[in-house]
Amino acid sequence: MRRILLAVLLLCAAVSAEAAPKIERIKTPLGLEVWFVREPAIPMLALQATWRGGSSSDPLGQEGLAQLATGLLTEGAGDLSDDDYQTALQEAAIAVDFSTERDYTTVTLRTLSQHRNRAFELLKLALTAPRFDDEPVQRIKAQARVAYERSRASPNALAGERFAQLAYGDHPYGRRSSASADSLERIDRAAMAGFTRDLLARSNLVIGAVGDIAPDDLARLVDASFGALPAQAKVALPAQVTPKTAAQPVVIPFPNPQSIVIFGAPGIAREDPDWYAATVLNQVLGGGGMASRLFEEVREKRGLVYSVGTQLSPYKAASLLSGSLATSNAQVGDALRLVRAELLRVARDGITDTELASAKSFMTGSFPLRLSSNAAIAGMLVAIQNTGLPPDYIDAYPGLINGVTQADIRRVAQRLFARDDYLVVVVGQPAGLGG
Amino acid sequence: MRNRLIAVLSAAVLWLAGAPGDSRAQVFNPTQFMLGNGMQVVLIEDHRAPVVHHMVWYRVGAADEAPGVSGVAHYLEHLMFKGTPSVPPGEFSKIVSREGGRDNAFTSSDYTGYFQTIARDRLELVMRMEAERMSQLNPRAADAKPELQVVMEERLSRTDNNPGALFGEQLDAAQYLSHPYGRPVIGWPAEIQRLTLDDAMTFYRTHYAPNNAILIVAGDVRPAELKALAEKYYGMIPMRPVPPRFRPQEPNQLAARRLSMTDGRVTQPSMRRTYLAPSRSAGEKQHAVPLAVLAEILNAPTGRLHKALVRGDGPAVSAGAWYSSLSLDPGTFGFSASPKRGRKLEEVEAALDRVIADLLSDGIGDDEMRRARTGMQAETVFARDGLSGAARIFGVALTTGLTVEDVEAWPRLVDAVTRDQVLAAARYVFDLRRSVTGYLLPKEQS
Lengths: 435, 446
Known about the structure:
Chain A has helices at residues 2-11, 65-71, 82-91, 116-128, 134-151, 155-168, 181-185, 189-199, 215-226, 275-287, 293-300, 332-349, 353-366, 374-386, 393-402, 406-417, and strands at residues 24-27, 33-38, 44-52, 95-100, 104-112, 205-211, 250-253, 258-266, 308-314, 319-328, 423-428.
């Protein structure tokens, strides 16, 4: 047993993110920038683009506007009705999908090389000439209405919603990102058309693409579709906010045999010099799946949960540290006490040298695994730009992680975990939470 | 739902049935060979990144369990992380992680699989560890007991906390009169609670042998290199007799079944209809590929199902069809739908019945056939983008009675399907006597 473990440790230093994809920065004739990786192995193209601005730009009382409006962009545009547009996608096996989160709105496009001209034509229509016809608007609103009713019976949705309300209060992050029964009444065609016109611009746009295409051809297609967008976005972006904490857990009674628990506290900004140390620490504590301390203590040793973990979420207007677990109602108090003890222990004692080395080895060694498909690489190209990092970030990453020292870890552990006032939301019929 | 996957941490997406591009071309062009002890090996080379996806699949799943010990296949999957002579309990995933890799496992009715994704120069390490737990698993009772609690918590998360999942179990149980596909993969609660380490180890010794396993590797490794490593680690495990996969088969189903379940946690009603359906390996196999085409046709966003149920003045907010051509014994062709507010489930069901009746009387249009083929052929190109998808397709196919050649033939088979064959398949399958229709309802307002 010891022999293999030792061999494993000795090998660690050799793990590295070798053979990073070669990123080209393309300037199109119309002045748009595209980060591009040429990948000739498969006759396809994957493109991702984001616009800064998402559900946190929904006007008060119109929660869900961004989601509904962007969802309707592929339900009729230009000369094409909703049915015509969807059929045109299907005829050429093209996927154009919009999605919206708090800070960003994203479109992903996937096409076979042979249909790429058609794909960019359809994308252009969705971006510049959405119709918001009555039939699809009513259909999508009816779906949103039922989704809202369903979410009233989803413990995870209830927990997430209450957590956001308590953590962010009146700030837009405290509001729903999907529609409610009330907000649906206030979202009409004019609101959706206005929102997408204000959001989908060139000033807040970032593009990444991977596939079997020459850079000049890509530039031409990008100009033909995105080039028609207005220069300047006009959406409101929320101010900075610090997540609130709480002295006592908040319980939402729900008739399930197992409780859902989420907890959180202020986290760390993506631009913070200690960001990389915080990610290494989180990896050891609760971000490392089956290799994390919380997994070991709460699941492996005691069998209290199926899943438990923590994460760092550097939103644009707030930095959050959060965690979650699910356990039988009778065990909630025990599981939560164990988790709290582990968080305090890491603040007090830090992590061992072995844990530090293992986490670094995982993070640097697993980085290439995230780049194993064209779509995944396109997503990475966009994320790097949105974080304000340079194209050589993929090459620089191992150095940034390996540069983290025990002193960095101790500092950031103090900063993040020397507290016991986590905001805790429990949905279920928990026992053992005390007074 | 035939392929009910249970993963240790996350269930991966299954490429349902379909695949690749030009109908003359091969899809994945894999290399295959057999080790001396009868272990099958498949390699899908992909040299785009210095990474490998390493999987071992066993031809055994929950439908191979004896009556009364439902869940033992899945419990064993969890115990496979609990120690071998050189890897202490709980260390397997830590070692993989420390080496920059990710690992997990999954259980379904027909198969059980274990995998790691890792840098290519770590392939030997994970092969050594995976081979060791194929033949020398040795969990301690002290670790097995809390792991059973973990499985119970997993069941609560996946099923008991979720009225839709609970209802799905009831529907599956009603669909199968005799075949063990009627049992949940994770097991019935009372039977899980009674499982012992001995039950799991008996199952292990009976079914986990190299001649009952398939090694599937996708990624940056050459055939000669893989062959040498496979012989070195898996090839030295002796072959053992493994019982044939004999499962109780369905009798003639003569009576349409209807179920309804109310649950206070449900806010929105929904319905599900399943029909017993052949697969590429079982039953009236000639209908399997046409049924896959039919599912593609029915699921089109502007296809006849959505036009009648969801779009325009249709009674539903959502509707879908599903079918997998890959299962060892006959599976199901299914539909699900939820009504708009103020519309009734009965109205949704009537609309679904009209869609099926029209299909059976009028058949399929040329446009529908063309679009379905286009989509399915494109999927076979997209399936080559990413390591795990291709490996998983071969794993499912080879553990459900198909061959590598059967997988590679997919685009040709899809291309050859005619309108008449789709109609014949629909007429064969959509027989209410072999169906289950279920309503999931909120508690009556009092």
